Amino acid sequence: xxxxxxxxxxxxSRFGTKGHSKTHLEPRMQPAIRNICDTARWVAFFRALETxxxxxxxxxxxxxxxxxxxxxxxxxxxxxxxxxxxxxVSRTYLFDTFLSREIQNGAEVVLNLAAGLxxxxxxxxxxxxxxxxxxxxxxxxxxxxxxxxGESPRCKLTRYDLDLAxxxxxxxxxxxxxxxxxxVVVASEGLLIYLSDAEVGALAADLSATTxxxxxxxxxxSPGQLKLMQRTTxxxxxxxxxxxxFGPPAGANFFVExxxxxxxxxxxxxxxxxxNRHPAELESLLPEPKGVLGNYPWTGVCLLxxxxxxSR
Length: 312
Known about the structure:
The protein is α/β, with parallel strands linked by helices. It has 2 domains: 2-11 and 23-84, no CATH class; 86-306, Vaccinia Virus protein VP39 (Rossmann fold), CATH 3.40.50.150. The protein has 11 helices and 7 strands. A 7-stranded mixed sheet has the order 3-2-1-4-5-7-6. Residues 1-29 have low confidence and may be disordered.
């Protein structure tokens, strides 16, 4: 795939600034997205692009193999599918940052829900004593094992192939994992946007019903950004049974009634601007407004903490 990336995309210095027009892409088309599992290959494609940059904000040497030719095809086939590298990279960078912070602050277990083709247990600087737990659908877990089983993670790694929509099974898993450490950090990168408000609330309540799940890292979209996404890439994802749904008007405060309080919130555009990665055409959206975002097109990553006495 590396040669394909060199042939079909501009030099690394242009990535994340002007985006990519379809004239740079010549993939052999299948349906743009077959199912929600394909979105993991799509995201891995952007991590592979970032890794090639001399000034990369992170390096994922496994992303190219995990994405495969299919990841490249998806980016070329989706409306705006290869356009917003700056946002995907900012999201990965922020999850890395918040996870590192929580681990440094004593987290003994990382629970990665809808882990996708994330390779953090292999690429981050981690203690061998840390326990990392990945949960995702069987298709993703199987593909990941086929690519990474010859590699050595830097910490203890366990994978569960489980559909998080199965409430009974996920609660049983949460109960089991609750006994493994006194401080568990949960990450759910790229998951919540595919769930309804009720489904997100139910998941938040299940997580807060534990004793040792202390923090939760999530990514969010404002109502305005959700509408934009639904009109573009979201149309094709809806046809594949993976519509964008979650963009709460309350933002990170949505989680308060379920026992979680926002501890830190970082916007993707603001983060991209810190590294001069933001598109020039979005300069007018900075600085990001405070308070209720409404129709402002915002996406970001939030670190949530368990409210004291919130075991439900």
